[in-house]
């Protein structure tokens, strides 16, 4: 039996801008995992998951039609990962086999809580990794990222792949998303193996070090949100607010460049300042697009954190899920902030950063 795991992630800064090719975000892997096991089967294969039986389904109304949105359904990502990894294996002349695949997710807990920590990315990466071992494909980290990105893209179609990068490479990362139009054209015209081997325009993954005098705290707002739906809503609003959107992109790029420099110079003050700037940029984006990014609960989470001297913001697409606080490493302040969150029904998630070197 083959068993592999892939970590979840948090966005630190650069959300929404990073969906555009060439724009950066900072992401970090956390020590909560999706585990995938594969065992050879006879006659028919199975896909099994205790947690995913309780999967939430998002739906929208288009005119009078009820439209189910399957882009948050983990089984879609598993099936897509199987499809593309097997297509790759076939092009490399490997023989395919039947298997039982079992998923266990700490990111979607047994009591049905969905934290929004990149579960769809982690399950995609874990499935590609497990199949790479099963078929002995000997894929490098970059090849796993690219195969996972293609599998994910074919389901979600509007994401930056930043959460996949965190899940593949671990640790703190400055990430820049590739050109998805280029990728679409390549997938339509070239064999998969060739697309994986080509350099992808604009894609950049650079490891960062978090200054040791800072702590990262995570709070869960208690409400799940759908990233693909929120990204679609922002994309739709872009047409009516093109000028504002360009200004947002420009300011986000500047903010991220300063923040990444802050990481490189281990300047905690700059990192905290730019986190606050990024929060404001996302609030501006929410205002001119009419999309709720920082919910009332997330605003409360940020205000409590600010009161304790932290810099804070929503993490990821918002609309619920998690918020983060970056605070000077002081156990007393940390305890006081976490207790304050708890008192206001914000659940502290006691997760640590996950680096691959720890394995
Ligand atoms: C969601 O976790 C972060 C967004 O930037 C979307 C993406 O990068 O795919 C909003």
User: Which cofactor or ligand species appear?
Assistant: (R)-mevalonate
Low-confidence stretches: none
Q: What is the domain total for the residues?
A: 2
Order of helices and strands, N to C? EEEEEHEHHHEHHEEHHHHEEHE
User: Portion of residues in helices?
Assistant: 40-55%
Quote the beta fraction.
15-25%
Number of helices: 11
What value does the Rg take, in angstroms?
20 Å
Query: Tell me about the biggest sheet?
Result: 6 strands, mixed
Fold and architecture overview:
With 359 residues, the chain is of the alpha+beta class. It has two domains: 2-208, Ribosomal Protein S5, domain 2 (2-Layer Sandwich), CATH 3.30.230.10; 214-351, 2-Layer Sandwich (Alpha-Beta Plaits), CATH 3.30.70.890. Helix content is 43%, strand content 23%. The protein is built from eleven helices and twelve strands. It has helices at 74-91, 119-134, 141-156, 162-169, 180-189, 192-197, 227-238, 242-264, 268-289, 296-307, 331-343; strands at residues 2-13, 24-40, 46-49, 58-62, 65-69, 99-105, 172-176, 204-208, 214-220, 311-314, 322-328, 347-349. The strands form three sheets. Strands 1, 2, 3, 6, 7 and 8 form a six-stranded mixed β-sheet that branches. A four-stranded antiparallel β-sheet has the order 10-11-9-12, sandwiched between helices. A hairpin with a 2-residue loop joins strand 4 (58-62) and strand 5 (65-69). Helix 2 (119-134) crosses helix 4 (162-169). The longest helix has 23 residues, at 242-264. The chain is globular and about 60 Å long. (R)-mevalonate is lined by residues 11, 15-16, 18-19, 159-160, 162-163, 227, 231, 316-317.
């Amino acid at each position: 039996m083959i068993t592999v795991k892939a970590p979840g992630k948090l966005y630190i800064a650069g959300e929404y801008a990073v969906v555009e090719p060439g724009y950066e975000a900072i992401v970090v892997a956390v020590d909560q995992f999706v585990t995938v096991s594969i065992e050879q089967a006879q006659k028919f294969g199975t896909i099994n998951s205790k947690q995913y039986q309780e999967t939430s389904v998002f739906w929208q109304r288009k005119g009078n039609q009820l439209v189910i949105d399957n882009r948050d359904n983990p089984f879609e990502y598993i099936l897509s990962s199987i499809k593309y990894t097997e297509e790759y294996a076939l092009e490399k002349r490997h023989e395919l086999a039947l298997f039982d695949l079992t998923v266990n997710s700490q990111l979607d807990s047994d009591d049905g809580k969905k934290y929004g920590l990149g579960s769809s990315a982690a399950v995609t990466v874990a499935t590609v990794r497990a199949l790479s071992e099963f078929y002995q494909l000997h894929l490098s980290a970059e090849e796993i990222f690219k195969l996972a990105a293609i599998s994910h893209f074919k389901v979600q179609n509007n994401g930056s792949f930043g959460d996949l990068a965190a899940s593949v490479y671990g640790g703190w990362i400055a990430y820049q998303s590739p050109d998805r139009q280029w990728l679409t054209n390549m997938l339509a015209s070239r064999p998969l193996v060739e697309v994986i081997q080509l350099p992808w325009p604009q894609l950049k993954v650079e490891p960062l070090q978090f200054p040791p005098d800072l702590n990262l705290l995570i709070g869960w707002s208690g409400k799940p949100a759908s990233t693909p739906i929120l990204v679609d809503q922002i994309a739709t609003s872009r047409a009516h607010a093109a000028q504002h959107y360009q200004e947002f992109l420009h300011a986000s790029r500047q903010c991220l460049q300063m923040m990444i420099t802050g990481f490189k110079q281990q300047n905690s003050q700059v990192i905290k300042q730019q986190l606050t700037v990024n929060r404001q940029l996302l609030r501006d984006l929410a205002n001119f697009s009419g999309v709720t990014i920082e919910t009332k609960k997330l605003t409360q989470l940020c205000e409590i954190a600010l009161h304790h001297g932290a810099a804070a913001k929503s993490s990821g697409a918002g609309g619920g899920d998690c918020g983060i606080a970056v605070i000077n490493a002081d156990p007393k302040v940390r305890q006081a902030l976490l207790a304050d969150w708890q008192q206001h029904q914000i659940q502290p998630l006691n997760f640590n950063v996950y680096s691959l070197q720890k394995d």
